[in-house]
Amino acid sequence: MASYKRRDFLLFISAGMGAVALKGCQPSEPGNVLSSSSTTEISSFSPSFKPVKGPMPLPTYETITVADHQAISGKYSQYEVIDDLVLPEGFTYDVIATWGEAVGDSRCGYNNDYLSFIQTDKNQGFLTVNFEYVSAKPWLETYEEVIGRSLPMAVVKQAFEAAQSQSIDAFSLPAQDPLRQAILEISKEGLIDMGMGVISLGRDSEGKWVRTYSSVDRRITGISGWTDGRYLKATGPAVGVFRQGGRGYNDRLGDKIIGTFANCAGGTTPWGTVLSAEENFQSYVTESVHPDGTSFSPSDTPFSTTRGLGNVLGLAGNKYGWIVEVNPADPEDYGTKHTWLGRYRHEAVGVRVKAGKPLAFYSGCDRRSGHLYKFVSSDPVVDPSDRQNSRLLTSGMLYAAKFYPDGSGKWIPMAPNTAVNPDPASVHIGGALALPLRPEGGSFVATTDEEVETFKKQYKTLGDLYSGDPPTKQGAILIDAHLAASAAGATCCARPEDTMIAPDGSLYIAFTSGGGDPGGEGPDGRIFQGPGGVIPHEPGWIVRLIENHGDPEALRFRWEMWAAGGEISEGGLGFSNPDNLEFDSQGNLWMVTDISTGSQNKPVPPGRVNQAGDPLASRDLIGLYGNNSLWCLPTSEPDAGQAYLFAIGPMECELCGPFFSPDQQTLFLAVQHPGEYNGKRRNMASQVREFAMTGLDGQEFIQTRGVPIGSNWPGKNPTDPPKPSIVAIRRQNLGAIV
């Protein structure tokens, strides 16, 4: 583990970086850790907490060596998974808000994700929350119990059975059709449970954060504007497409937008606004667009229980997949979508602000072939805290990243005059690359290098792939950003999720999963390799990126694989699938994991072979890592990139959106979809499963693991429904966490 990490770090330094001056959005910054003096050994990192014990042996939990195999296997031969948020000794958590509770004139949504706390006084502030999606099994199973009314699911199930299909195009049904009305009710309720929320908080005499229910509290849902006039606004070149219409579907609303949904991660600006990232919008509306940027019909994404929820409402798909900016302090602000930031499956936003320089915003597209993007504003920042800085998001240029195996990279402008130069299909894990389909619109998947070469000969610039006058053509490129970036030769990445600016101005990126599907899209295998060059590497990485000369508008950069997920014996750090990132006041990086629900605690048989005797694929070993978790990683040498386990989540959940209060006494955390796979835990049900674990030396031993089936969190009583909730973690003595 250490040799892999240290080797890559030294190679990165030797690549000619030298000392650079880096400036981030913080008022004062430490020296550049990649300068020539950064290799000097300093005192070791000592965590301010005793790490919790996870299912996997970790040298950061206790002092163990390669030779301690017998001791390790004895200590870890049995392990019990707990349906609770497990924290270090001396810490506790308070539940702040839970699905179904009142927020303004609506309710707390489902699957809370990104959190942003903006303090307005010493003991009060606004907590802005993203609500990403509804998990089919627990949402449908407990909706009536939590919300207090039923959904007309029987009507829909009967229609599914009659049609011998699990999807229905409700958009094409007559307005008064009873089936359409039932689907409309289900779709509206699902979309209400997505979007954003603003919750006012105060700290009581015991040091706990509690809700204060101010007039600012409000929800921005997936149907805001549908009947209440609370439309979202938009800026940038895509607005011209919305207003003019064209070849495809037109919702006849012009630049007015109904709602926001699929709100995953996000970012907080130095001027006090919150940026929310619309991620998997393609689950609810049609993603494909025509060459002029207009949408395919809503009929192309039919209703299917908790999918296709925009179908019956006739939502135009090109209005979703954006970054939404909201001022939590303004009760009349229901969000603005800035189209210069691009339309794709946004996971997060890293905000880089430096007085005298343009704004730089970083975001990733969370798909197995997604790209890393940077927006640079046309005008410079004068005062980083000026609320007028939002106007800088209305003009600039979007770029997509090209990574090279030698640790260098460049930014490719998403402009009409940019050359078409896609990478060969064969370099991608999975062996395929999606490209714009012309003249029909939408996309096709190239599975041979010959197909890609034919495409390159047919189209010379991105402008050849899109239609309209120059502003409209630019808008169409931004609307179709993922395919445009692939056509321009941007690197297909390993599910880029969070992007976080460090105090020194460098960018940390969580690449969650390095897998690909045979014959399908996947990351570039020349770049995304695990320790020892292994591909695919399912556990993922954290990558560090430095702009040339520390300049936010630089067109060249350097990058390194800063920390690898995976087993200790294989060169990893003991975690899998890194996702949301956050820095504390000491510069330590905090990271939550995003192990898919179906993979959590999935048994790994002895010998790690399947029934046919073949070695298990990388993705089939993810069950080793147990539940999703929260980690602390120091960024200063000599311990940079070591991983300390701070928290383990309840059953079948994902931990999201860690955010520190300014005094570092509180860590706000979202616990998303407990019980997503098995629903409510009944009669304290559990299973005993076996896992072929390894010690630090790589020797196998069998762990017997007790695994609860479903969840009762946060109530924890045997009959309680699982509910997504927001918690505030604190020390019991109310001291600083770090």
Describe the structure.
- The protein is an alpha+beta fold and 738 residues long.
- 13% of the residues lie in helices and 27% in strands.
- The chain contains nine helices and 34 strands.
- The protein has a nine-stranded antiparallel β-sheet.
- Strand 11 (263-268) and strand 12 (274-278) form a beta hairpin.
- The protein is globular.
Overall 3D shape: globular
Percent helix, as a range, is 10-25%
* Mean pLDDT, all residues: 92
Structural class: alpha+beta
Largest sheet: 9 strands, antiparallel
CA radius of gyration is 25 Å
Query: How many strands appear in the DSSP assignment?
Result: 34
Sheet-strand content, in percent, reads: 25-35%
Q: Flag low-confidence runs.
A: 1-43
Summed up, the helix count is: 9
**Which strand order spans the largest sheet, edge to edge or round the barrel?**
15-16-17-18-19-25-24-23-22
End-to-end C-alpha gap: 26 Å
SSE diagram, text form:
Elements (H helix, E strand, L loop, with lengths): L1 H13 L54 H7 L2 E3 L10 E8 L3 E2 L2 E2 L4 E10 L2 E8 L4 H12 L5 H11 L14 H15 L2 E9 L5 E3 L6 E3 L12 E3 L2 H7 L18 E6 L5 E5 L44 E4 L9 E3 L11 E3 L5 E7 L7 E9 L15 E8 L4 E6 L19 E4 L6 E4 L2 H10 L11 H10 L1 H8 L7 E6 L5 E5 L29 E7 L8 E9 L13 E6 L5 E5 L35 E5 L10 E5 L5 E7 L6 E6 L13 E9 L5 E9 L16 E7 L7
Parallel strand pairs: 1-33, 10-14
Antiparallel strand pairs: 2-34, 3-4, 5-6, 6-7, 7-8, 7-9, 11-12, 12-13, 13-14, 15-16, 16-17, 17-18, 18-19, 19-25, 20-21, 22-23, 23-24, 24-25, 26-27, 27-28, 28-29, 30-31, 31-34, 32-33
Helix pairs in contact: 4-5, 6-8
